[in-house]
Every structure is written in structure tokens, then in C-alpha cells.
């Protein structure tokens, strides 16, 4: 659906050049929800603005639905933008227009008749759950309702792609979850490809199929959400993962564990079907070793189970070594430095 090939974007600020995007190559497939995450200044927003030519790349090529958008005429650029909906962090609604008026606006620009507009607006407000708010003005709405209006407006011209620019950053956690559920509905029921940027890893975890991590204008890691969460390669990615995945106990808990005689702590990572299999108890029982689960959890990622446990073992050293060797046939095992912190 979208292909970035060696894309770079440089801005000139006074006598200084700023490389906002550096040699980025990404493929977003039709029907995917693709997330781009990074801290402020990573280049996420600039990359998004290149898709509909709100910014033009300095180098490289972008294809949208197989068309090289760098070769488009102004008329064709307008057609391209009609196929790409956008929703924003601050909603960008017209304060002087009603909810229905905001949703109708792009249809009026496209030359639809009043009858067609009224029908389409009614359909969209029903889809986003705001039928009863049609005559209200934005100032009468909550943040979540405003974003629902923004989504309805973005869907008005039946786009193939929906771009979300920090769409939940201004919302509380409960409202964020509601909006993410609505975006999933947009993706599943309407078949719309979604490209979103965020600095919140829980958004990526909850909604995305794939993720690219950006830093200083570059993509430093990209993979399925499951693979990135369960095996992050880059330090920055690991920091993002740790922001939503408390995979290490507090210093005080570790101190108490050591006080009671704990010496060696191991992280045991279960993925997929193995997470529901009693591997740990079966192996420790076989070698007459006791296991103590110090910390961790088993949860669902992209409809797959993922377990991340911190454990210690009690028994003879040779038996513990046999347990570690046997476990590594089915799961990932690594020793944790308990002296950190």
C-alpha cells in the first residue's frame, strides 16, 4: 500500500541544515495497522507528511498503491489526498460548524449534493457512535467525542489509507482505549490501511500489526509487534518496551530476595503455545529442583501468549544446570544481574 525507498528529508533553518528523515525504507502492506514510534524529534511526523506530499522528500521515492507520488501533477496530488484520511492529536475541528457540518465539510469540497452529503454524514455518525451529537458544536463535546468526529470526517470520502498523527496523546487512558477500538473497527470492517505515529508504546501494543522504531530521523528497528516486544534488539526499543512491561521487580523486592539467600535469578521467556505448556514445572520436577517464581506475568500479544518470568532455583548445582539446559530446548533463559540498582 505504501513503500518508502531510501527517503530523506532535509530542512534548511537559517544557515543550518536539519536532517529530519535519513534514508528510511519501509513497506506497509494493504490492510495493516502499521505503527511508527519514537521520542520527540525522531522524525515521525515528517515521515507521515511525506505520504500525502504535505512535505516533499529531499531524496528517495514513495509509492502509494503502486504509484510513484513524486511524479504526480497537482491535480493528481489532490486525488491522492482524497484517498488518504488524516486524524490529529488536537482534533482540528471547525469550532463554528456543528458535528454534522464538520463531517460534511470534505464532501462539500468534493462537490457532493446535499442529499448525498446528508446520507453519508448520517452513516458515518452512526459508525462512530455519535448520531445523537449531530447538531452539537465541538465545544460541547468531550475529547473522545471530538476525536470520533475527526475520524468520521477523515472517513467521509472513503479513503484507502488513514493516517493518525498522535491521535490519542490528548486523551485519558479509558478514552484512548475506546478510540483504539474504533480504529480497529475501521481497519477490520472497512479494510482501511492505517499508518499511525505515537510516542506511547501501549498504543502500539494494543492496535498495531507491525512497528518501526525511529531515532534521530532513522528507522533503527522494524518487525511485527510480537517480535519487537518479545525480542527487542535496540536499546531505544528496549526502553519503550520497559515503559509498558514491568519485567523487573523493584530494588527493595530484589534486596529482600537477596536477604533471604537468593543468589541466581533467571529470566524465562515463553512465546506462543509454549506459554500455556507447563514446561517449567515439568523440567524442574524431572531433575528434583524447586522453582521460585519471583516476578513476572503471562499475557496476550497479537492473539499469542507471551510469558516473562523471573525465577530462582533451589537444588544441587548439577541438577540446576540440567534444568537450565533442558529449558533452553523450549524457551529462552537468561541470567539476570541482581546487583544492578
From TrEMBL:
Molecular-function GO term, any one: ATP hydrolysis activity
SUPFAM superfamilies, per database record: ACT-like, P-loop containing nucleoside triphosphate hydrolases
GO cellular component: plasma membrane
Domain (ABC transporter) ranges: 2-241
Source organism superkingdom: Bacteria
Keyword Transferase in annotation: no
Any GO BP annotation: amino acid transport
Family annotation (Pfam families): ABC_tran, NIL
Keywords assigned: Amino-acid transport, ATP-binding, Cell membrane, Membrane, Nucleotide-binding, Translocase, Transport
UniProt similarity note: Belongs to the ABC transporter superfamily.
Protein name: Methionine ABC transporter ATP-binding protein
